[in-house]
Amino acid sequence: MGSSPVVNDETMAELAAKAVSDLFEPKDIIEDFSIPNMGGEDFANCLLEVLGAFFFLSSSNEKKGTDIPHHNPTFNIDEDVMWKGTVTFVRIVHNMLRIEKK
């Protein structure tokens, strides 16, 4: 049957967007919703059970050969930017805890 469509929780999506905007320069944030996306992802099943938000973290770098899309046999990740994912998730959790503490 396949996965359900990905439907982000609005509050969680706002937390993720705030974390990214706090951490990175506007030139490093892409919010181009004109790029077609099928919206099918196994993570959708998680969102049926818990609040969450799906977003992309890119490691695309043509010079390093890491500009191949995921789910491709030649996909390669630029490990030099993996820290960005870590600090983003830490910031999201930090912001969530601050909200819950209020």
Arithmetic mean pLDDT: 88
> How much of the sequence is in beta strands?
under 5%
Weakly predicted, low-confidence segments: none
Give the distance, in angstroms, between the N- and C-terminal Cα atoms: 42 Å
Strand elements, count: 0
What is the string of helix and strand elements?
HHH
Number of domains: 1
Q: What gross morphology would you assign?
A: globular
Major sheet attributes: none
Provide the structure class: mainly alpha
Give the helix proportion (percent range).
Answer: 25-40%
Query: How big is the Rg?
Result: 15 Å
Summed up, the helix count is 3
Write structural notes for this entry.
The chain is mostly helical. It has one domain (10-101). The protein has helices at 10-23, 43-47, 82-101. It is globular and about 45 Å long.
